[in-house]
């Protein structure tokens, strides 16, 4: 099969082999997008869609102007419609410039789609891009559903965003471009291995491809399998969810507990997402599930996020919106710990509970399954800290002894377990606990303020 035959098959699958259809081709003048443009131009006239070439001059490199000028001349010579957009230096942000550039670029494509009634925007993402995306998501961790890679097609403005080259490797595109004597420009920043994607591109992916030449094909296969599994899970959850929901959308705890254990978390996640209209992270799901089925806490409330809280009573869990408050947190308010994530709890303190120490000053702390969920809250008058000798010390006395100004004491936060036992007076003192009693060890960490030697006090 020739490259053009292969490309025609991919476009046909997206119903884009039609001269009555208009498509926007995103062209950066790199080898990938120039190869895509050349493939489109080689389609037979009776099958080739109407082409609109879209290019953004980001003014991020010295050669940006040269590239825009080249593409302008190229489109004139090939009788192609060209639409240019300019992203001036004055609009560049101080940080996050890559994300901002992408946002500007895709907004331009969307506006162009609306103006031209185009059916699709075509981009030149390929198999190596897919592999890099997978590896980056694997390294970051998180929800399995977030591991989904670049999609061949997805909705975009009034049409679709289509990537017809996802089955092509970078090497294949370069070979095709060389065979067709295509002119392209190399982006010098692509060689900067300080950037994560570039390190994967130049070091990791080549090593894995050398280890197994079929690596890119395997990634594509994993993507298809993951999509199928997620679809199957969604279909099963749609069947199970109504069996655990009360008429007012509460969760029936007993019915949920009777589900097969492997389906409890997916159903709980789907229920939370349906009622709050917001996805729930996998890291937060475990503590919520533990709270839902805890026999020691048959009633109570749990803050899910800044907008919602859970309320448990009479075997039902309800989701209620949190009332917005302008004033500072009252002593009764709690915020659930998001494991392995930094959380801002005061104007100057960012804290976290981690499975691996995020910094050298992190404090290892033994915990049991009965501790979960952990929560942050302001300290209260009767709060006590466990001492190594077996006694206790009031949090109030700790703050006095450490000469914390009276005006600052109200803002001090504590970490408590599911039974409201203080584990840490943030920034001041940790409770003592025998390591042998632990199910596992977590690490308590604080940044933006000093620990003041508190990690040495017991």
TrEMBL record:
<comment type="function">
    <text>Ligates lysine onto the cytidine present at position 34 of the AUA codon-specific tRNA(Ile) that contains the anticodon CAU, in an ATP-dependent manner. Cytidine is converted to lysidine, thus changing the amino acid specificity of the tRNA from methionine to isoleucine.</text>
</comment>
<keyword id="KW-0547">Nucleotide-binding</keyword>
<dbReference type="Pfam" id="PF11734">
    <property type="entry name" value="TilS_C"/>
</dbReference>
<dbReference type="InterPro" id="IPR011063">
    <property type="entry name" value="TilS/TtcA_N"/>
</dbReference>
<keyword id="KW-0819">tRNA processing</keyword>
<comment type="similarity">
    <text>Belongs to the tRNA(Ile)-lysidine synthase family.</text>
</comment>
<dbReference type="InterPro" id="IPR014729">
    <property type="entry name" value="Rossmann-like_a/b/a_fold"/>
</dbReference>
<dbReference type="InterPro" id="IPR012795">
    <property type="entry name" value="tRNA_Ile_lys_synt_N"/>
</dbReference>
<protein>
    <recommendedName>
        <fullName>tRNA(Ile)-lysidine synthase</fullName>
        <ecNumber>6.3.4.19</ecNumber>
    </recommendedName>
</protein>
<keyword id="KW-0067">ATP-binding</keyword>
<feature type="domain" description="Lysidine-tRNA(Ile) synthetase C-terminal">
    <location>
        <begin position="374"/>
        <end position="443"/>
    </location>
</feature>
<dbReference type="Pfam" id="PF01171">
    <property type="entry name" value="ATP_bind_3"/>
</dbReference>
<keyword id="KW-0963">Cytoplasm</keyword>
<dbReference type="InterPro" id="IPR012796">
    <property type="entry name" value="Lysidine-tRNA-synth_C"/>
</dbReference>
<keyword id="KW-0436">Ligase</keyword>
<dbReference type="InterPro" id="IPR012094">
    <property type="entry name" value="tRNA_Ile_lys_synt"/>
</dbReference>
<dbReference type="GO" id="GO:0032267">
    <property type="term" value="F:tRNA(Ile)-lysidine synthase activity"/>
</dbReference>
């Amino acid at each position: 099969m020739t490259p053009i035959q292969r490309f025609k098959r991919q476009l046909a699958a997206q119903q884009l082999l039609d001269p009555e259809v208009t498509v926007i081709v995103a062209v950066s003048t790199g080898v990938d997008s120039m190869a895509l443009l050349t493939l489109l131009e080689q389609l037979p006239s009776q099958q080739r869609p109407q082409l609109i070439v879209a290019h953004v001059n980001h003014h991020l490199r010295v050669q940006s102007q040269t590239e825009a000028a080249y593409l302008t001349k190229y489109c004139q010579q090939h009788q192609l419609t060209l639409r240019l957009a300019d992203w001036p230096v004055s609009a560049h942000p101080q940080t996050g410039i890559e994300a901002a550039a992408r946002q500007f670029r895709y907004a331009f494509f969307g506006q162009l789609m609306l103006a031209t009634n185009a059916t699709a925007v075509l981009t030149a993402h390929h198999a190596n891009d897919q592999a890099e995306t997978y590896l980056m998501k694997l390294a970051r961790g998180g929800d399995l559903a977030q591991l989904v890679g670049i999609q061949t097609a997805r909705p975009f403005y009034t049409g679709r965003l289509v990537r017809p080259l996802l089955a092509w490797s970078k090497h294949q595109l370069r070979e095709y471009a060389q065979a067709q004597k295509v002119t392209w420009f190399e982006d010098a920043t692509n060689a900067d291995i300080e950037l994560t994607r570039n390190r994967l591109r130049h070091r990791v992916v080549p090593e894995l491809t050398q280890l197994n030449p079929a690596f890119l094909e395997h990634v594509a296969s994993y993507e298809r399998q993951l999509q199928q599994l997620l679809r199957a899970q969604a279909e099963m959850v749609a069947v199970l969810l109504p069996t655990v929901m009360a008429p007012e959308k509460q969760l029936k705890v007993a019915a949920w507990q009777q589900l097969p254990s492997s389906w409890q978390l997916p159903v709980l996640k789907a229920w939370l997402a349906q009622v709050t209209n917001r996805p729930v992270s996998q890291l937060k799901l475990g503590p919520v599930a533990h709270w839902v089925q805890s026999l020691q806490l048959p009633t109570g409330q749990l803050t899910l996020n800044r907008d919602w809280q859970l309320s448990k009573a009479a075997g039902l869990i309800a989701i209620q919106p949190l009332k917005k408050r302008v004033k500072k947190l009252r002593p009764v308010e709690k915020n659930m710990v998001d494991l392995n994530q930094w959380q801002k709890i005061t104007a100057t303190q960012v804290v976290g509970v981690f499975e691996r120490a995020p910094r050298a000053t992190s404090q290892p702390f033994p915990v049991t399954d009965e501790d979960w969920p952990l929560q942050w809250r302001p300290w209260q008058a009767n709060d006590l800290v466990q001492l190594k000798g077996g006694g206790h010390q009031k949090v109030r006395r700790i703050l006095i002894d450490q000469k914390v100004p009276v005006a600052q004491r109200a803002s001090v936060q504590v970490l408590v377990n599911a039974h409201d036992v203080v584990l840490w007076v943030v920034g001041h003192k940790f409770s003592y606990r025998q390591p042998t009693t632990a199910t596992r060890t977590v690490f308590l960490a604080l940044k933006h303020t000093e620990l003041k030697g508190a990690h040495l006090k017991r």
